[in-house]
Amino acid sequence: MQPEAAEAAAPGAAAAAPDLPQLRRGGPGNARGRFAFGARCDLYPRMYLIGDIGGTSVRLALAQAGQILPDTLWRAPAGTEDFRAILAQYRAVYASGDIEGVAIAAAGAPRDGLLPLTNRAMVLDPEEIRAELGQVPVTLFNDMVGQGYGLSRLGPDGLRHLAGPQTGQGARLVVNIGTGLNACVVHEGPAGTFVPPSEAGNVTLPQVTDSLRALAGLHGGEVVAEDVISGRALPWLAKVLAERDNQQGADALAHAAVQRVIADALAAYMRDMVLCHMATGGIFLTGGVSMALADVLDWTEVHAAMVGGRAYADLLARVPVTLVTDPHVALRGCAAIAGAQT
């Protein structure tokens, strides 16, 4: 045991084992909330660096035993695309001790051992991460996998009901509307939670309403879902629809025409995703744009448009729509994945 971490034993009690690790904060040489660790012991779970990287944000934290250590949550300054430099900034403040593994969810599709992000100039490379952290296991996965596993870790305080029944039964659908768009299905079975990766934001958007058919005409005849339902789509939507309707205004979501198109597109998209995956357990909306839309759209109308009057309307009517208000759902999923590896 390191001298500064030693504590006196209670009278009659056995002395503490000399090789037990110590997790401490704020001790000598341990300023600014850094964490330090003593010797390894199987009584103490491994320490993981976890991350959630989207189109405009990088969130990092430390996790142990499948749980985020709240005091280590950190958001990187905007404008940096060098992930190794971001890691160095984080470690300078929070992680002076040993990190024994890495689990990062990012908005992109892993391939050839790398994870290039879809909507930013960043590529995650396990070797670059090890160059900064040492020879530790590195797990990189699609951000929706992180969100899917994190969904089961949320309490009622992290959820807000928007439309439909209060609860559903069956597989659940997570729809992330942020800089881009994606969706995943969350299955629960005898072996536990299973979340397959997905790039479902790039499916072709069905032109099932007049507003969507008109929009497709403005876009050259066809649009993918992310071209309409995403943060990066809002400036384009505001420009083309405001010009068409001779409206002005800086806030894209303030335009009634923009709201109408997004509502129609989202209803059609959610309907297709629910039926593709039989996600009768509910739709869970995540991401910054979802938070903004929650207070702009009429969700009773969106739900009714999703249900429609076609096949499986009775099934769709039983699917609730819920907003995830916890901004750390993907990090919670990363912590769960990391905890399962220890």
From TrEMBL:
Q: Which UniProt keywords apply?
A: Kinase, Transferase
Q: Gene3D superfamilies from the xrefs?
A: 3.30.420.40, 3.40.367.20
Q: Name one GO molecular function term.
A: D-glucose binding
List the GO terms this entry assigns under cellular component, sorted alphabetically.
cytosol
Species name for this entry?
Answer: Lutimaribacter saemankumensis
Report the CDD domains cross-referenced here: ASKHA_NBD_GLK (cd24008)
Q: Which Pfam families match?
A: Glucokinase (PF02685)
The record, for PANTHER family, names:
GLUCOKINASE
Where is the region Disordered? 1-27
Q: Which InterPro entries match?
A: ATPase_NBD (IPR043129), Bacterial_glucokinase (IPR050201), Glucokinase (IPR003836)
Task: State the protein's name.
Answer: Glucokinase
Name the residue ranges with Low complexity bias: 1-18
What is a biological process (GO) this protein takes part in?
Answer: glycolytic process
Write out the similarity annotation.
Belongs to the bacterial glucokinase family.
